[in-house]
Task: inverse folding
């Protein structure tokens, strides 16, 4: 962004939008957009409360567990698809289907299978995150030079040794990209799961705030989720940059 010939930081555009939001809120154009300063005050107010801490614990548990399972399942499945043509032909249509499908429509089915509780929420997070992890792990393995795989076979590497010593390190940049995107999708999954399955955690707070038109509280909580998603994405992006030498070694 440039102003009068001076190059401004990328965050400057965000400040412009925040100022506009504040002006609209002060003008009381709509109840849905309270002033940013009022939202910030509510944020400081609700974060130290026991209800926020309890909601954070419930939401964090489901989010971490669902994403951990997605990574533990998605990476090996993606590696398998990348190295096996049969597995790729069998699984790729289903993976592409679930990547593009409206997964929130499956939540009622999960409720019938697992009941109304944390298991269904964790499963929802898993379904939102796992498919993109699978696709990126598959893409990383398919980009490994054949000479590297041939060298592993010449040295008698078994399946586990090949996975940990060849496939995983060589495909690590793409795997981390998939994990980053999967974790971001997992944020959406945990909120949708908590709203639709059983109104608990942040989903419960969203329901309370929206039903009582507490829009300052609602936006404050939403900004917490936005900030969390951005921090996680930036942290994983930093980790991706740290392992870029794996990608450079393949060319």
Result:
């Amino acid at each position: 962004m440039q102003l009068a010939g001076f190059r401004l930081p990328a965050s400057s555009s965000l400040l412009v939008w925040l100022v506009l939001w504040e002006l609209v809120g002060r003008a009381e154009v709509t109840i849905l957009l309270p002033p940013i300063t009022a939202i910030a005050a509510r944020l400081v107010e609700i974060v130290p409360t026991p209800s926020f801490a309890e909601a954070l614990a419930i939401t964090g548990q489901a989010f971490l567990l669902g994403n951990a399972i997605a990574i533990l399942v998605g990476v090996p499945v993606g590696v398998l698809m990348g190295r096996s043509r049969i597995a790729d032909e069998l699984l790729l249509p289903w993976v592409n289907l679930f990547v593009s499908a409206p997964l929130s429509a499956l939540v009622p089915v999960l409720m019938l299978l697992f009941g109304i509780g944390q298991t269904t929420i964790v499963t929802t997070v898993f379904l939102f995150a796992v498919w993109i992890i699978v696709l990126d792990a598959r893409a990383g393995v398919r980009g490994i030079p054949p000479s590297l795989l041939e060298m592993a076979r010449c040295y008698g590497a078994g399946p586990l040794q090949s996975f940990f010593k060849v496939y995983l390190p060589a495909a690590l940049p793409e795997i981390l990209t998939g994990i980053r995107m999967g974790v971001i999708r997992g944020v959406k999954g945990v909120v949708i799961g908590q709203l639709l399955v059983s109104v608990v955690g942040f989903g419960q707070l969203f329901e309370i705030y929206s039903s009582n038109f507490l829009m300052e509280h609602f936006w404050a909580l939403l900004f917490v989720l936005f900030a969390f998603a951005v921090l996680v994405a930036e942290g994983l992006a930093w980790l991706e940059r740290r392992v870029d030498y794996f990608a450079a070694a393949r060319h």
Notes: Residues 51-249 form a domain with the MetI-like fold fold (CATH 1.10.3720.10). The CA atoms of residues 149 and 155 lie 10 Å apart. The chain is about 80% helix and 0% strand.
